[in-house]
Specification:
alpha/beta; globular
Length: about 240
């Protein structure tokens, strides 16, 4: 442990980490600039008891989306409001900034630890990152969801399994699609490929939750493979979740 700490310090000195908010070199030994640490807005109550999105009506249990639609996953949560970190997330996904995962996974692990104790109230058997299609993975060079899951594994000790769920269809970009269009597009995009998911409590890990279509499709694939229960933890949650804006 001490060797790893000193190794990380030396690497920080030789190759300063980029702050995930301003993208400049973070102060030595830190993951984010002190001033920039105030920029990401954390999700806090009142929150939807299904997707974890912010509620318009404080007395409600579910947001309009989740009240009118049954999800495949049991329950989920997110760390940040997407609008507060949209730029950093875009760089993380498309701007070749895998080092942002150090800070993001630290925050995600802390939030997941709280959710497992207070909201989900279950012991997790494995973390499963939402997979990329192999063509997109080759083009990008890394799966940002798996980087988050691996970082969370190191911090919480929950095994990360990036080999039990695969994406067999390279679907079109989802951000311009409506929720029904997303569900139709993702209907057969994912498949469980291991018996290791049978009867397990699984936490899906992804960077962004918007309408829930991707999480539902992944959960359905895992249930077809025999999973016991599926929850999710996202780094950020978008406006279409919770407030249905």
């Amino acid at each position: 442990m001490r060797y790893c700490l000193w190794k990380n310090r030396v690497l920080d000195l030789l190759y300063p980490r980029r702050c995930p908010v301003c993208d400049r070199a973070a102060p030595f030994g830190t993951l984010i600039c002190p001033a920039c640490a105030l920029v990401p807005v954390r999700m806090n109550g009142p929150l939807c008891h299904c997707c974890g999105g912010r509620l318009r009506e404080p007395e409600a249990l579910f947001c309009p989306v989740c009240a009118g639609r049954r999800h495949a996953y049991r329950r989920g949560a997110a760390v940040f409001d997407y609008r507060s970190i949209s730029g950093p997330l875009l760089r993380f996904k498309y701007g070749n900034r895998p080092e942002y995962a150090d800070y993001f996974s630290e925050e995600l692990a802390a939030a997941l630890d709280r959710a497992l104790r207070k909201d989900f109230r279950v012991p997790a058997d494995m973390l499963v990152p939402v997979p990329l299609h192999r063509e997109r993975l080759l083009a990008r060079g890394y799966n940002q969801a798996e980087l988050l899951a691996r970082g969370t594994e190191r911090r919480l000790g929950i095994p990360c399994r990036g080999d039990v769920l695969i994406r067999t269809e390279n679907t079109a970009p989802l951000k311009t699609m409506s929720a029904p269009e997303r569900r139709s597009c993702l209907k057969s995009a994912f498949h469980s490929c291991s018996d290791d998911v049978k009867s397990k409590t699984i936490i899906l890990i992804d960077d962004i939750y918007t309408t829930g279509s991707t999480m539902d499709a992944c959960a359905e694939a895992l249930y077809r493979g025999g999973a016991g229960s599926v929850y999710f933890m996202a780094l950020a949650i978008g406006a279409q979740a919770g407030q249905n804006a």
